[in-house]
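Quick one:
INPUT:
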């Protein structure tokens, strides 16, 4: 084989075996020639090639050519590659608007119809209008079947969700939701309570939470953001129910006792005697209220003595009129009202003290 020299597409092209070309390509490169790695040829534009330059090139390549160079005859066109032919065909289909947009699952159908895939536009281009119409019909059938599958899937999902909710309702017969500002604001697991809706005693078995950073009003919150706690409860056991009844009884008894103490105070203020002086009471304070305020001159209590029963109101706070104080205390003193000792009144106070104590 020898080096050949030919004109093609406005270029002068030199091609030949590697052993011959490796001796001349430095000379070609130094004269501004370019190498086409895909076709493995050297070329230069004819527009840049003067008669003197061309004669010089022919002189350089003459020893490697089988015969005297003859570049006057036009060379045979180079066969187009498969990629070039496919690109030309794709360009024709694009110009003809022969495209169809289909889902990925229809790739085999489009390929069997002779479609060409355009990875840039993510569409299929068909050979002609008739094939495009067939592809559109196939797409219509696919979408109808896909819609039917979606309906079935949605139906099955609803059935599964209904079954899940039924199983959940069987496991947790009582459910409610409550909102909170923090993640730990939900009720504690194991908390026992009586429902105001049905009067039954329930135990918190599970707490699920969701945080809504925005649009919280649409999800039942009283603000735009916050936590919603979904509380799932089971029926309380016999022992849990008994404890709850005991708590409720104790709470009710305490409420009744506080109300009875309030009425007793009113009665004592109306029916008892106020004696001026500086009395030192010997009995222990009983049924004390607001014990935490003693150091600040507050609080009130009852005292049972052998001949009298006292109701005492501490009056030692800053700004109080201490001149009305008639009972000694550890501070500025208190005001006291007394009535003669009565067994029934003593029993009433002792009963209140048993329930309320000093608090």
């Amino acid at each position: 084989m020898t080096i050949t020299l030919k004109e093609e597409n406005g270029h002068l092209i030199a091609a030949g075996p590697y052993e011959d070309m490796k001796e001349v390509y430095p000379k070609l490169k130094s004269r501004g020639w370019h190498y086409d790695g895909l076709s493995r040829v050297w070329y230069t534009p004819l527009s840049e090639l003067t008669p003197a330059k061309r004669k010089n090139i022919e002189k350089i390549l003459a020893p490697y050519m089988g015969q005297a160079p003859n570049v006057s005859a036009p060379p045979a066109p180079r066969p187009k590659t498969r990629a070039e032919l496919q690109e030309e065909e794709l360009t024709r289909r694009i110009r003809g608007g022969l495209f169809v947009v289909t889902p990925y699952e229809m790739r085999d159908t489009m390929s069997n119809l002779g479609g060409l895939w355009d990875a840039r536009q993510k569409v299929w281009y068909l050979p002609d209008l008739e094939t495009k119409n067939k592809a559109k019909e196939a797409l219509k059938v696919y979408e109808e079947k896909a819609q039917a599958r979606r309906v079935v899937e949605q139906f099955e999902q609803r059935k599964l969700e209904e079954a899940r909710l039924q199983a959940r309702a069987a496991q947790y017969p009582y459910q409610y939701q409550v909102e909170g500002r923090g993640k730990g604001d939900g009720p504690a697991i194991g908390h026992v309570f009586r429902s105001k809706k049905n009067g039954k005693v329930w135990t918190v078995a599970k707490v699920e939470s969701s945080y809504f950073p925005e649009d919280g009003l649409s999800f039942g919150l009283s603000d735009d953001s916050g936590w919603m706690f979904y509380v799932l409860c089971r029926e309380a056991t016999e022992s849990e129910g008994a404890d709850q009844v005991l708590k409720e009884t104790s709470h009710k008894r305490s409420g009744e006792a506080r109300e009875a103490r309030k009425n007793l105070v009113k009665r004592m203020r109306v029916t008892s005697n106020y004696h001026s002086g500086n009395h030192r009471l010997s009995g222990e304070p009983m049924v004390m209220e607001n014990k935490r305020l003693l150091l600040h001159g507050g609080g009130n209590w009852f005292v049972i003595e052998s001949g009298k029963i006292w109701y005492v109101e501490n009056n030692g706070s800053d700004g109080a009129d201490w001149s009305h104080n008639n009972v000694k205390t550890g501070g500025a003193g208190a005001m006291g009202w007394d009535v003669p000792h009565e067994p029934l009144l003593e029993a009433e106070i002792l009963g209140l003290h048993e329930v309320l104590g000093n608090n």
